[in-house]
Write a structure and sequence with these properties.
By secondary structure, this protein is of the alpha/beta class. Helices cover 16% and strands 19% of the residues. The chain is built from 28 helices and 65 strands. It has a 23-stranded parallel beta sheet, with no helix packed on it. Strands 1-2-6-5-9-7-8 form a 7-stranded mixed beta sheet. Helix 18 crosses helix 19. It is globular and about 95 Å long. The two termini are 28 Å apart. The relative contact order is 0.07.
C-alpha cells in the first residue's frame, strides 16, 4: 500500500505530460516534451500539492523543446556519495519515455563533490535535499536548452570519477550517454534507454549543474585569507591585517586589508624556509632563499588554517627547482595569481582542459619570463597552441595526446627547445621549420599517422633516437637511415612493418639499437647494420634472420618461425639471447663459440640435443631449454659456472652423473615433466659443496630412494617432488634439510609425513594433497608455517598442540572423507584466515537421487608467492530451477576486490538477464556489461579478467541436448575435452595475442608501452572494470556457444597463469588421468607452480556426463513464473579478520564455510546484484519451467539445499570466505602493487584491512529437501506460501530459516524477545571467536549463518531491507518445538492478506518497475506457482 500511495502522491504533483503537449504544442522534432510547468520538489516528509506551484519563466520559455526537470529529494544513507531515490517517475512521465527510445533521463548533480550527511533532527528531516535533479529530455536536447530551462550557467561532465569538463553549449548530454553506452557494447536502443536511466551509471558518466568543488584541489592550487602579518624579524615592524596568498612558488602579501589591489609583496619560497613560531600561537615564519632573504610572519586564526598553510608551504620550500604541478585538476585556466610567481621554470598542466582565452588561458603563458618546461599533454586541444611558440625560453614541450593534426611553422621560433613530445596525435607530416631547431635532441612521434620517416629528421642532427612506434610505416628503407647519420636508436614497433629493404651495400654504421617488435616481417636481413648492439624482433613471422655479429650484445627474437639464425662473424660480445617459441631443431654452431654469452633461452622449440660445448661454456650462467625434445644432457666439465638450468618438458631419463658436484654454482634446477627414475648424487664424498636452492622434480618416475640423494643439498629452500612414485620419505634425510621453506609432496603414495619435518624450522608452505596420508603431520609447532594443504587424503583425526602458530593463514583439509573435527578443534582453528574442510553430509539416498545432475565440479586456487589471492571462482551445479549450471573464473591480476565482487554478483546478473532474452549473444553480453556497471567506484580504477560458462538447453528444444555458452574478457580461458582432444572455447583478449584488438587500441590513440600494456597498466584490451581506460579497454565479451554431446568429457577453466605454464593438451591429459574433479584442479595448479609460475593460479574442472538419455524433462502445460533463484554460493579461499560467521556452499555436497561474505546468490543490491535496477522477471522471453523425475526443484533462494548438489566424487568445502564488504591486504590500482598507490574513492583502507564500501543482501537459508515431517510443518509451509504469493511491500525484515524441514520465520523486532526467552537464549549464548553462534553439542551438524553486513549503506553496493546479523539464525533440533510454539502468535505475519498484483504483461518492463524486486526464489520445494518475496529496493545514485 505504501507503494501505491507514493505513486498517487507523485502523480498529484508530477507534470501532466499530455497536458503539457497540448499547452505547448506538439512534440518537437527532437523528441523532447514541451513542458511549461515549474520544477517540482518532492519532500521526504510528504508531498504538499500546493508547494512549488508558482509560475516562472526563463530564457528558454520560447524554445521549441521543453525539458522536464524533477528535483528529487535524496535520502542520505550514510555514504559519502551514495543517495537513494525515494520517488519514481509518474505514470505520464513513463508513458512519455516509452513513446520514443530517443527520450530519456539525465541526472544532474550539484557541485558538492563530498556531500556530508544531513544533521539529525526534525529540521533536517523536513528540509528537502535537491542536489540531484532528474531531467527528462531527448537526445537532441543541447546544453544550451537545458541551461535555459534551469536558469543555469553551464553543465559539466565527469567520466569514471576522474576529471570534470565544462560542456560546450551545442553538446547534447543524453546523446553523450547513449554514445558512451554504445561504445561499451550495448546495441539495442530500448536497452540503451533503460541503462541511461540507471543511477549506477553515474560511476562511469555523471553530469553536474555547476563545477564541483573539491576542497583538497583548491588547497593545492591556491590558499588565501586575511591574517595578521608582520614583515621582518625585528620588533620595529608592527602587525597588520592583510590579504595573504600562497600560490605557485610564492607567498603574496597585499598592501591593503580588503583587496588585492595596489602593490603586492612577493616572497619566493623555493629553497627557503617555513618555520613554526613557538612564542605565538598558530604563527609561521616564511623566509626566502639567498643572502638577501626576506621574512614574513603570518599569524593564523585557527589551527586548521595553520596546518593547511604549513603543509602546503613545506612542499614548496623543499623543491630544488621552481616547479608548479597543476596536473589532473580539471583546469580551464591557471589561477591568475600564479603569474606573480615569475620564478617558475617548470609548469605541469597535464590532463586538464586548458583553453586559449581567459585571464589564465594559454594566451597568457608567455607572461612567465623564465619558463623552461611546459607540459600540456592530455588537454583535448585539437589544434597546436601557437602562443606557446612565443615562450622563447622553453627547452621542453610536451603536447602528447591532444588530437593535433598539424604543427605550425612558428615552431621554428623555439630555438632553445631540446625535447619535443608529440606522441598520441594525428600527425602525418612535420613542417620544414622544425629542422631549424638545432638543439632538439629528443623528438617523440609515436602513435601518430606517419606512413614514412619524415625527411626533416635529416636536419635534426642532435636527435639520436627515432621514436615512431605505433605509426603506419610499412617499409623501412635502410638507405634512409644512412642519410640520418645521427640516429642511433630506432623504435618502429607496432607499425605493421612488412619490409626492411637494403637496395645498396652501403653500411648503416650509426644504428646501435633497433626495435621492430610486433610487426608483420617474414624475413629480416640486417647484415648491413654493422654496429648493431641490441635487436628486438619478437612477435613477427620471421622465417629467416641474418645479422652482423661485430658488436651484437643482445638478441631478442622469440615468438617467430625461425628454423635457424645466421650471424656473421661470431658475436663475441653477445651476452643475452632469446630464441624461445620458434622452430629450431638444432642450435647453430656459432652459439657455442660465443665467449661472453650469459643467458640463453631456447624454450618451446624442437631441439633434440644440446651441444656439449654449450653446457661447458665458461660464461653461461642461465640456460633455459624447457619444452623441447631432449633425450639426454651431455656430461659437464669441472667448475662449470652455470647457475640456473631449466630442462622441464623434455624426454630425459637421467641426468649427468656429475651435474651437482661439477656445477657447484647451480642454484636453480627444474627437470619437471620428464621420465627420470633417479637423480644424481650431490657429491662424490660425504661432504657436499652444493649451493642448490630450488629443485623441481614434479612429474617424473622417482621413488623413495631419491630422498637419500637430496641430503647433500643442505641449502635447499624450495623442493617440489609432486606426482612421482614415492611411497615414503626417509625421516632421517628430511631432518637435514633445515633451510627448507617450501615442500610439495602432492600426488604420490605417501601414507605419512615424517615427524622430522619439525626440524625444518623455516618451513612456511607444505603441500601434500592427493596422497594416502592418515596421520596429521607434526607441523603446527613450526614457527613460520603459513600454508598447509592436506586435501584429498585419508586423514581421520588431528592431534593439535595447545596453541597454533599465529603465522598459519591457510589450512585445507577437504577431500578427507573420514575426518571428523571436534568443536574444540574448530575453536582452535578460529584465527586461521582460510580454513577448508568437509562438513559431514546428512542426505538420504532419496535426496541424492533427487539432486543428481549430469555434471559435477572441483576447483583450486593458489596464491603462489604473492601475499594475496586475486583469483575467484564461481561454481553452481544447479543454476535456477532447471537442469542448468553456471561456472566462472575471475582474475584481478593485482587486486582482489573486483574478482570477489564479480564472484558475488555475476551469477545473479546472468539469472536476471535470462528472464528477458534467450539469445546467447545478447544475454551474455548484457551480463558482462551490467556486471561492469555494478562494480561502481571499485571498477573505476580496478579491473579483472572474467570468464563465464552457462550450460543449458536451447529454448527452442527444451527436451533436446545441452548447449554450452561461454563468454570472456581478458585472459581467462576455457577448454573443452571432446574425444580426448582439447577444444578452446574462449578468446584471449591481450594485445600480444589479438591483432584486431591491437589495431583498435592503436586507432583510439592509446599509448602502448614497450611491455605491450595500455598506458602501462594492463596487457588486456577487454576487462570488467578499469573504466578509466575507456575507450581503449572495453567490457564487451567474446561469446561462443557449442552444443554438448556424449563425447564431451570435461571442461577446464583457468586464468592466465595456468595456461601460460600448462598447455591445452597437457591440461586435458592431466584431468583425464584423475577421476576426482577437485583433485584434478589441484593437480593443474600444482603442475603450474612446479613449472615455474610464481603468480596466483586458479583452475576449475567440470566433469560432464552428457548421455543421450540423460534427461526427459518436458515443459509444463503453462507457466508465467519467472526464472528460478540465483546460483548457489561458491566457496572462496581468502578472508580477513578473526570474527567471521559461517556460510553454506554447494560445491558438490553440504559445505560449511567460516565466512563473512555472502555467496554469489546472496548478493542483491542497487549496485551489487540484479535485484535492484534490472527488469522484472516476466515477459515473453521468460523460459518455461522444466522438470523430470531426476531433476525436481530443490533449491531455496539460490542456496543449494542439502543433498541437492551434484552427486560428485567430492563433498562440499568447509572454509572461510573473504567478505565482499571487507577484504584483506592493501588496495591495488592500475595494475601496480597496492602499496604504491593512493586510496581510491569507495575503497577504505584501515590498517591491514581493506574495506570496500558495499552492502549486500544477506540470505541465511538452509532446508532439507523432501516433504515436511509433521502436520505443523505443513501448516507453516502453507502459511508461508500464502503470504509470499502476494506482492506485498515488506515493512519489517523477516528472517526465513529452516531446520529439519521446519520453516521458521522470525520478525526482526522479535529477536529481542527471543534472546530473553529461556527456551531460546541458548541460541545467543556462546559466540565463537570466528563470529559463529552454535550450541556446543550441535557444533558438528549445525552452523549458524550470521552474515555481518557493513554498518553503513554506502558506495556502490546498497542493500534494500538489510536484516541485522542477529536476525539470521538456525534453531537446533532440541529447541525446534519450543521456538515453533513461540512463533505461533506471529501467524498473521505469515498468512496476512495478499495485495492484489497487476499482471506483469500489462505493464512496461522498465518504467513501471524502476526498482524491480529480487528475482523469484522457491521458498518451499514442491509443485505450484513460485512464491515471490517482494522486497523494498531503492535506487542508488553514485
Amino acid at each position: 500500500m505504501a507503494m501505491e500511495d507514493e505513486d498517487k502522491n507523485t502523480a498529484v504533483v508530477a507534470t501532466n505530460v499530455r497536458a503539457g503537449i497540448k499547452k505547448g504544442g506538439d512534440v518537437g522534432d527532437n523528441g523532447a516534451c514541451i513542458d511549461r510547468q515549474p520544477d517540482t520538489v518532492v519532500h521526504q516528509a510528504g508531498l504538499n500539492p500546493t508547494a512549488g506551484r508558482g509560475s516562472r519563466s526563463g530564457p528558454g520559455a520560447h524554445a521549441a523543446t521543453g525539458i522536464r526537470v524533477l528535483k528529487r529529494n535524496m535520502k542520505r544513507n550514510g555514504s559519502r556519495r551514495c543517495m537513494t531515490r525515494k520517488t519514481r517517475f509518474g505514470s505520464r512521465e513513463r508513458d512519455w519515455l516509452k513513446g520514443d527510445t530517443q527520450r530519456g533521463c539525465v541526472c544532474l548533480y550539484g557541485g558538492t563533490v563530498d556531500p556530508q550527511p544531513p544533521a539529525p533532527g526534525p529540521q533536517a528531516s523536513s528540509t528537502p535535499q535537491t542536489d540531484l535533479q532528474l531531467v527528462l529530455c531527448s537526445t537532441s536536447t543541447t546544453v544550451e536548452e537545458l541551461c535555459a530551462q534551469r536558469d543555469g550557467q553551464g553543465l559539466y561532465v565527469q567520466l569514471h570519477g576522474d576529471l570534470t569538463r565544462r560542456l560546450d553549449p551545442s553538446e547534447r548530454p543524453l546523446q553523450m550517454v547513449y554514445d558512451y553506452l554504445a561504445s561499451l557494447g550495448y546495441s539495442d536502443p530500448v536497452r540503451v534507454q533503460q541503462e541511461a536511466a540507471n543511477s549506477d551509471l553515474s560511476c562511469m558518466i555523471r553530469f553536474y549543474s555547476e563545477r564541483p568543488v573539491n576542497a583538497d584541489q583548491q588547497e593545492r592550487t591556491l590558499l588565501k585569507g586575511v591574517f595578521s602579518v608582520r614583515k621582518g624579524k625585528t620588533q620595529l615592524h608592527k602587525w597588520a591585517e592583510r590579504q595573504v596568498l600562497l600560490c605557485g612558488t610564492c607567498l603574496i602579501v597585499a598592501s591593503v586589508k580588503d583587496s588585492l589591489t595596489g602593490k603586492m609583496h612577493i616572497l619566493p619560497l623555493v629553497g627557503g624556509k617555513v618555520e613554526e613560531v613557538r612564542r605565538r600561537q598558530h604563527c609561521l615564519m616564511f623566509s626566502s632563499a639567498g643572502s638577501q632573504a626576506q621574512t614574513y610572519f603570518v599569524n593564523f586564526d585557527t589551527l586548521a588554517d595553520y596546518q593547511r598553510w604549513h603543509r602546503q608551504a613545506l612542499k614548496v620550500v623543499s623543491q630544488t627547482v621552481s616547479l608548479v604541478d597543476l596536473s589532473c585538476y580539471s583546469l580551464e585556466t591557471v589561477p591568475e595569481y600564479l603569474f606573480y610567481s615569475q620564478d617558475i621554470t617548470h609548469l605541469n598542466l597535464r590532463h586538464n582542459f586548458m583553453s586559449l582565452q581567459g585571464p589564465g588561458g594559454l594566451l597568457n603563458l608567455p607572461r612567465f619570463s623564465q619558463l623552461k618546461s611546459l607540459n600540456l599533454s592530455h588537454n583535448r586541444l585539437g589544434v597546436f597552441p601557437e602562443c606557446v611558440c612565443e615562450i622563447l625560453t622553453l627547452t621542453e614541450l610536451n603536447l602528447s595526446c591532444n588530437s593535433l593534426h598539424t604543427i605550425p611553422v612558428q615552431i621554428g621560433n623555439l630555438q632553445s627547445l631540446q625535447t619535443l613530445s608529440l606522441d598520441g596525435n594525428h600527425l602525418s607530416s612535420l613542417p620544414e621549420e622544425l629542422g631549424g631547431l638545432f638543439q632538439l635532441n629528443s623528438l617523440g612521434l609515436s602513435f601518430n599517422n606517419f606512413s614514412h620517416i619524415p625527411a626533416v629528421l635529416e636536419r635534426l642532427s642532435a636527435v639520436d633516437k627515432l621514436a615512431m612506434a605505433g605509426n603506419r610505416v610499412e617499409t623501412l628503407e635502410l638507405c634512409t637511415l644512412v642519410r640520418m647519420s645521427h640516429l642511433k636508436n630506432i623504435d618502429i614497433r607496432l607499425n605493421g612493418l612488412r619490409w626492411v629493404k637494403s637496395e645498396n651495400l652501403e653500411a648503416v654504421s650509426q644504428v646501435t639499437q633497433l626495435d621492430i617488435r610486433d610487426n608483420c616481417l617474414d624475413s629480416l636481413d640486417l647484415s648491413s647494420v654493422c654496429n648493431l648492439e641490441t635487436l628486438h624482433c619478437q612477435r613477427n613471422q620471421l622465417g629467416t634472420l641474418t645479422l652482423s655479429g661485430f658488436t651484437l650484445r643482445m638478441l631478442h627474437a622469440g615468438s617467430n618461425r625461425l628454423a635457424t639464425v645466421n650471424i656473421y662473424p661470431v658475436p663475441n660480445q653477445l651476452t643475452h639471447m632469446d630464441l624461445s617459441q620458434n622452430l629450431l631443431e638444432y642450435l647453430p654452431d656459432w652459439v657455442c663459440d660465443c665467449r661472453k654469452i650469459e643467458m640463453l633461452d631456447v624454450t618451446h622449440n624442437l631441439l633434440s640435443e644440446l651441444p656439449s660445448r654449450l653446457l661447458n661454456s665458461l660464461s653461461l650462467r642461465k640456460l633455459l631449454t624447457g619444452n623441447n625434445r631432449l633425450q639426454r644432457v651431455p656430461d659437464l666439465l669441472d667448475h662449470v659456472p652455470l647457475e640456473a638450468l631449466d630442462l622441464q618438458h623434455n624426454k630425459l631419463v637421467e641426468l649427468p652423473e656429475g651435474l651437482f658436484y661439477k656445477a657447484l654454482n647451480l642454484k636453480y634446477l627444474n627437470v619437471s615433466a620428464n621420465a627420470l627414475e633417479n637423480i644424481p648424487s650431490s657429491s662424490q664424498s660425504e661432504e657436499s659443496l652444493s649451493t642448490l636452492q630450488e629443485l623441481y622434480l614434479t612429474g617424473n618416475n622417482l621413488n623413495e630412494n631419491c630422498g637419500a640423494l637430496l641430503v647433500g643439498h643442505q641449502n635447499l629452500r624450495i623442493l617440489h617432488i609432486a606426482y612421482n612414485q614415492l611411497l615414503s620419505f626417509p625421516a632421517s634425510k628430511l631432518s637435514k634439510l633445515e633451510l627448507l621453506e617450501e615442500l610439495n609432496l602432492s600426488g604420490n603414495k605417501l601414507k605419512t609425513i615424517p615427524s622430522t619435518v619439525s626440524s625444518c624450522k623455516r618451513l612456511h608452505t607444505l603441500i601434500a594433497h592427493s596422497n594416502h596420508i592418515t596421520v596429521f603431520p607434526e607441523i603446527l609447532n613450526l614457527p613460520e608455517i603459513k600454508l598447509v594443504d592436506l586435501s584429498c587424503n585419508e586423514l581421520t583425526e588431528i592431534q593439535l598442540p595447545d596453541s597454533l602458530p599465529s603465522t598459519l593463514q591457510e589450512l585445507d583439509l577437504t577431500g578427507n572423507s573420514s575426518l571428523i573435527l571436534e568443536h574444540k578443534t574448530l575453536n582452535l582453528f578460529s584465527h586461521i584466515t582460510t580454513l577448508k574442510f568437509d562438513q559431514k553430509s546428512t542426505t538420504t539416498a532419496g535426496d541424492s537421487l533427487n539432486a543428481s545432475t549430469p555434471w559435477n565440479h572441483g576447483f583450486s586456487e593458489m596464491s603462489g608467492q604473492r601475499n594475496k589471492l586475486c583469483v575467484s571462482v564461481l561454481a553452481v551445479d544447479r543454476f535456477g530451477d532447471n537442469v542448468e549450471a553456471c561456472y566462472g573464473i575471475f582474475d584481478g591480476d593485482r587486486n582482489e576486490e573486483v574478482p570477489r565482487l564479480l564472484q558475488c554478483t555475476m551469477g545473479d546478473v546472468l539469472c536476471e538477464e535470462l528472464q528477458h532474452c534467450s539469445v546467447d549473444m545478447v544475454y551474455m553480453c548484457n551480463t558482462f556489461l551490467t556486471s561492469h556497471r555494478k562494480l561502481g567506484m571499485a571498477g573505476q580504477k580496478l579491473g579483472a579478467s572474467a570468464l563465464l560458462c552457462y550450460i543449458h538447453r536451447e529454448t527452442s528444444d527444451p527436451g533436446g541436448y545441452f548447449s554450452l555458452t561461454v563468454a570472456n574478457v581478458g585472459t581467462c580461458q576455457a577448454v573443452l575435452c571432446r574425444d580426448g582432444r582439447p577444444v578452446p572455447l574462449s578468446k584471449v583478449y591481450s594485445l600480444e595475442n589479438c591483432t584486431e584488438e591491437m589495431e583498435r587500441v592503436k586507432l583510439s590513440k592509446a599509448i602502448i608501452t614497450e611491455d605491450n600494456k595500455v598506458s602501462g597498466v594492463t596487457c588486456c584490451s577487454r576487462l570488467l572494470g578499469c573504466s578509466y581506460l575507456s575507450p581503449w579497454v572495453l567490457p564487451k565479451p567474446w561469446v561462443h556457444t557449442v552444443p554438448l554431446c556424449p563425447q564431451d568429457e570435461f571442461l577446464i577453466l583457468g586464468n592466465r597463469a595456468l595456461f601460460e605454464r600448462v598447455s591445452y593438451q597437457e591440461a586435458v591429459c592431466t584431468v583425464q588421468a584423475v577421476q576426482d574433479p577437485r583433485a584434478a584442479a589441484k593437480k593443474l595448479c600444482s603442475l603450474a607452480q612446479s613449472y615455474g609460475c610464481k603468480d596466483n593460479i586458479g583452475a576449475l574442472v567440470v566433469s560432464l556426463h552428457i548421455g543421450e538419455d540423460s534427461c526427459t524433462c518436458e515443459p509444463p502445460v503453462s507457466t508465467t513464473e519467472p526464472r528460478g533463484p540465483p546460483p548457489a554460493p561458491v566457496p572462496v579461499s581468502v578472508t580477513p579478520g578473526p570474527s567471521e560467521p559461517v556460510n553454506i556452499s554447494s560445491s558438490g555436497g553440504i559445505v560449511t564455510e567460516f565466512s563473512s561474505e555472502t555467496s554469489a546468490s546472496e548478493v542483491g543490491s542497487e549496485a551489487g546484484s540484479t535485484a535492484s535496477d534490472e527488469h522484472p522477471s516476466s515477459g515473453p522471453a521468460s523460459r518455461p519451467e522444466r522438470r523430470c523425475s531426476l531433476h525436481p526443484a530443490t533449491t531455496l533462494c539460490g542456496i543449494m539445499v542439502p543433498g541437492s548438489a551434484g552427486a560428485g566424487t567430492h563433498p562440499g568445502l568447509f572454509q572461510r570466505q573473504p567478505s565482499s564488504a571487507t577484504f584483506s591486504s592493501n588496495q591495488s590500482d592500475n595494475g601496480l602493487d597496492s602499496d604504491d598507490e593512493a586510496p581510491l574513492e569507495g575503497v577504505i583502507s584501515n590498517g591491514s584491512k581493506l574495506e570496500v564500501e558495499v552492502d549486500i543482501h544477506c540470505c541465511a537459508f538452509q532446508l532439507r529437501s523432501g516433504a515436511p515431517e509433521s502436520p505443523k510443518d505443513l501448516d507453516l509451509e502453507k502459511q508461508g506460501s500464502d503470504y509470499l504469493n502476494g506482492k506485498m511491500r515488506r515493512q519489517n525484515s523477516v528472517v526465513v530459516s529452516a531446520t529439519n524441514g521446519c520453516l521458521l520465520a522470525v520478525c526482526g523486532r522479535e529477536i529481542a524477545d527471543l534472546k530473553k526467552s529461556p527456551s531460546t537464549c541458548s541460541l545467543f549464548g556462546k559466540k565463537l571467536s570466528n563470529g559463529s553462534v552454535v550450541v556446543p553439542e550441535d557444533s558438528h551438524n549445525l552452523i549458524e549463518v550470521a552474515l555481518e553486513a557493513p554498518k553503513k549503506k554506502s558506495g556502490y553496493f546498497t542493500a534494500p531491507a538489510q536484516q541485522d546479523p542477529e536476525d539470521q539464525l538456525i534453531v537446533p533440533p532440541s529447541l525446534e518445538q519450543e521456538v515453533r510454539e513461540q512463533l505461533r502468535s506471529h501467524g498473521p505475519l505469515l498468512s496476512g492478506p495478499s495485495a492484489p498484483s497487476t499482471p506483469t504483461t500489462l505493464k512496461d518492463p522498465v518504467w513501471d518497475h524502476p526498482h524491480p524486486p529480487a528475482f523469484a526464489s522457491n521458498l518451499v520445494p514442491g509443485p505450484g506457482p513460485t512464491p515471490i518475496l517482494q522486497q523494498e529496493v531503492y535506487d542508488t545514485a553514485l
